[in-house]
């Protein structure tokens, strides 16, 4: 019987999610990486090795998430942790130029999908006294001009998701962290109205920096909960 803990990572094909998956696998977790791009997921899982597997899913789809959760249990028989790193933004970020349909899409991905995955996985996390890392943003901790209306609103609301989860599920041993990184040098920067150049990216956090913080939360003993963690580059 394989008694290694099982971690499900959404947004696990690239960037911070992929880095978190690599770090967790190196620390002894079995890892399932999810996202909407099967080819990228397969490449990420293959690069990690036998401790990882790919599970494509659109986390905005309630039925698809329920099926994915069942697949995780079918493969591994347990679920001990979540890293929720799927997210999006739009170049049209201000009240003066935003598109309302895109606003709803950003909120659905950044907020609605987090609630959907948590709701699906919560019975398993109760059984395992599991740990959750919700990858938010420094814009979810304090206002950052330029982050965008939809992005700021959705990421700020993740703090409430984490606080209610901790308040209501601590009796089951469930622990959640609202992780708020500052600027990170990933492909996500391509969604900015003005894309940062190489010099600007060199001053940012790396995905591995964020993964190290995620691993700190995952490795905390069961009596320790990291409610919120803010990490920013020294600019």
Describe this structure in words.
The chain is 45% helix and 14% strand. It has helices at residues 15-26, 38-48, 62-76, 100-128, 149-169, 198-202, 207-219, and strands spanning 6-10, 30-34, 52-54, 81-84, 131-135, 175-181, 228-231. The protein has a seven-stranded parallel beta sheet, with helices on both faces. Helix 2 (38-48) links the parallel strand 2 (30-34) and strand 3. The longest helix is centred in the middle third of the chain and has 29 residues, at 100-128. It is globular, with a radius of gyration of 17 Å. The N and C termini lie far apart (48 Å). The model has no long low-confidence stretch (mean pLDDT 97).
Which key features would you list for this structure?
about 240 residues; Rossmann fold; alpha/beta
């Amino acid at each position: 019987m394989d008694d290694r803990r099982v971690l499900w990572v959404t947004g696990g094909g690239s960037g911070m999610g992929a880095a978190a998956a690599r770090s967790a696998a190196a620390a002894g977790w079995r890892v399932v990486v999810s996202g909407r791009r099967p080819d990228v997921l397969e490449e990420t899982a293959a690069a990690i090795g036998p401790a990882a597997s790919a599970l494509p899913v659109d986390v905005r789809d309630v039925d698809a998430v329920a099926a994915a959760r069942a697949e995780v249990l079918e493969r591994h028989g347990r679920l001990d942790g979540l890293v929720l790193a799927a997210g999006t933004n739009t170049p049209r970020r201000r009240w003066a130029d935003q598109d309302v349909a895109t606003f709803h899409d950003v909120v659905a991905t950044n907020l609605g999908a987090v609630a959907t995955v948590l709701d699906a996985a919560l019975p398993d996390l109760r059984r395992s006294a599991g740990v959750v890392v919700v990858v938010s943003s420094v814009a979810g901790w304090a206002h950052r001009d330029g982050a965008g209306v939809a992005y700021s609103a959705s990421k700020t609301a993740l703090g409430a998701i984490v606080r209610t989860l901790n308040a209501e599920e601590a009796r089951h041993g469930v622990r959640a962290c609202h992780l708020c990184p500052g600027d990170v040098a990933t492909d996500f920067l391509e969604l900015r109205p003005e894309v940062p150049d190489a010099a600007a990216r060199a001053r940012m956090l790396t995905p591995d920096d964020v993964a190290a913080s995620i691993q700190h939360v995952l490795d905390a003993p069961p009596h320790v909960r990291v409610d919120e963690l803010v990490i920013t580059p020294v600019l």
